């Protein structure tokens, strides 16, 4: 997969005092270091506005790792690789100082001129930083240079194009690593393996045998401190444009001719090109939006979205989206891919349910109910695993059928949790494997799909908002979306691996 084994690099993290760096990036780098997946030849420059000494910065690294990981034997050694640069993103002198520091560390740690620039800060700075990195000479290196960029990649297609143009003046497409952290999740990566490494699924993976696919990603958290960002984003931009559409692409893509970055991305792009555009009045038939009101979860009373900090008290922003995606190609014609995602829902869960068509003739009966359809459930989080729902004979003298479940719980390496998405993505980037990052074509196609929906939603106030209580599975309209097709949402709580 375009990999080389050289994990030597200078990593510059822009936004090093931010939440993402502390919660995800530093602990993930530490885990790689501890597993010897990061050679001793690495150095990190933390870049942020506030003044800090190297010692203070190193202390913050230790604090962040210690709060995330229980055993951190090599923390002193690890933290000694970190340096700090107090930066003004608009000032060339500041980039010049950063360049000197980078060159010096490059020599000291023998980093072969390899550089990773990680942009983990407010998106309005992504473009200007990329331009400065080039004009101020930080990208003039003898080794590789890579740009890792967090979401959101633009606010719509127009702004994404503009950002992409700015970035591309300094980095070529194959040097750009656009993060979609769902692509780093163990079970999201497993979709391909389940599909393409088993003889029993792929022959059934089409509109002859699958009746519908349901992808749910529900959260219990509300908007927290991110009201300002979320008001402009909403669930459509925050979750659907990226994570949800990416999961659909992995479920729907054709088998690639090879398991390499180019081939996999190219198959995903084809799916996105086949995605039926939904616009104008049609949107009401294909999509439902919601906004959480007050409610209770685990006996705790929760405020409505409109009462959250930095949120307009009459906000029209959606905190929930359900949609029906149709992929108009030979394999999927007629099979709805239902997606739903929302904040302040009943449970934190990401699951994919593949519902197979009923058998042509039902010879068996079950007391009080019809035979259950076969389901393949892929549990993405919090539990990881696969469940296959079948029917079998109920033990005893009769010939009655009963639903059974074949279950696989993924306990990860050594029975511990599987590696955090960021750990895998950072490692991939160090090795030059961009497979689990989004290509510009994917980003552009996703935006052009969701832009048509936001165009309608932003211009029509939803008078029913708030239309679901916190602690529930979303508005009634989301259920009706499936009912009109004769389906219903498989309840995510009953499908848990541990319940089987
Ligand atoms: C992020 C969104 O991309 O994904 C957040 O910006 C959301 O709003 C998060 O909470 C969900 O990620 P996960 O890994 O907890 O499912």
UniProtKB/TrEMBL annotation:
Name the positions where substrate binds.
181, 185, 219, 238, 343, 348
Record-annotated Glucose-6-phosphate dehydrogenase NAD-binding domain positions: 12-190
The Swiss-Prot or TrEMBL record annotates one GO molecular function as: glucose-6-phosphate dehydrogenase activity
Q: In which pathway does it act?
A: Carbohydrate degradation; pentose phosphate pathway; D-ribulose 5-phosphate from D-glucose 6-phosphate (oxidative stage): step 1/3
Q: Name one GO cellular component term.
A: cytosol
Q: Which leading EC class covers this enzyme? A: oxidoreductase
What this chain does, per the entry, is described as: Catalyzes the oxidation of glucose 6-phosphate to 6-phosphogluconolactone.
Spell out the protein name for this chain. Answer: Glucose-6-phosphate 1-dehydrogenase
Q: Which organism is it from?
A: Bacillus yapensis
Gene for this protein?
zwf
């Amino acid at each position: 997969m375009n990999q080389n084994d050289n994990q030597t690099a200078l990593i510059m993290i822009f936004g090093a005092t931010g939440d993402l760096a502390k919660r995800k990036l530093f602990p993930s780098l530490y885990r790689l270091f501890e597993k010897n997946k990061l050679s001793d030849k690495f150095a990190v420059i933390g870049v942020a506005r506030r003044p800090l000494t190297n010692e203070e910065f190193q202390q913050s690294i230790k604090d962040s790792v210690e709060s995330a990981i229980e055993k951190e034997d090599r923390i002193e050694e690890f933290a000694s690789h970190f340096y700090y640069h107090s930066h003004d993103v608009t000032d060339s002198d500041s980039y010049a100082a950063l360049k000197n520091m980078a060159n010096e560390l490059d020599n000291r740690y023998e980093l072969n001129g390899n550089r990773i620039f990680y942009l983990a800060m407010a998106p309005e700075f992504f473009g200007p930083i990329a331009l400065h990195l080039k004009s101020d000479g930080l990208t003039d290196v003898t080794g590789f240079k890579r740009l890792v960029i967090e979401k959101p990649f633009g606010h719509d297609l127009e702004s994404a194009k503009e950002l992409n143009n700015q970035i591309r003046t300094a980095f070529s497409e194959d040097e750009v690593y656009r993060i979609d952290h769902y692509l780093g999740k163990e079970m999201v990566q497993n979709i391909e393996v389940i599909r393409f490494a088993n003889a029993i699924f792929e022959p059934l993976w089409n509109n002859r045998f699958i009746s519908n696919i349901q992808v749910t990603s529900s959260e219990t958290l509300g908007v927290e401190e991110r009201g300002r960002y979320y008001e402009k984003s909403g669930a459509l931009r925050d979750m659907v444009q990226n994570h949800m559409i990416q999961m659909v692409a992995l479920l729907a893509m054709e088998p690639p001719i090879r398991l390499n970055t180019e081939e996999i991305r190219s198959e995903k792009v084809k799916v996105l090109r086949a995605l039926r555009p939904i616009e104008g009045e049609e949107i009401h038939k294909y999509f439902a939006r919601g906004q959480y009101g007050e409610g209770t979860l685990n006996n705790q009373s929760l405020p409505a979205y409109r009462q959250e900090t930095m949120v307009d008290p009459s906000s029209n922003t959606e905190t929930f989206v359900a949609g029906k995606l149709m992929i108009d190609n030979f394999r999927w014609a007629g099979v709805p891919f239902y997606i739903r995602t929302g904040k302040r829902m009943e449970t934190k869960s990401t699951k994919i349910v593949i519902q197979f068509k009923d058998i042509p003739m039902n010879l068996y009966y079950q007391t009080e109910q019809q035979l259950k359809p076969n389901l393949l459930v892929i549990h993405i989080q919090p539990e990881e695993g696969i469940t296959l729902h079948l029917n079998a004979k109920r033990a005893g003298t009769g010939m009655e059928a009963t639903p059974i479940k074949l279950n696989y719980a993924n306990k990860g390496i050594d029975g511990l949790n599987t590696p955090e998405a960021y750990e895998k993505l950072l490692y991939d980037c160090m090795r030059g494997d961009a497979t689990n990052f989004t290509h510009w074509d994917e980003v552009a196609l996703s935006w052009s799909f969701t832009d048509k929906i936001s165009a309608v939603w932003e211009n029509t106030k939803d008078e029913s908002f708030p239309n679901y209580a916190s602690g529930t599975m979303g508005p009634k309209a989301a259920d009706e979306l499936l009912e009109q097709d004769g389906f219903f949402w498989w309840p995510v709580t009953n499908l848990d691996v541990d319940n089987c």
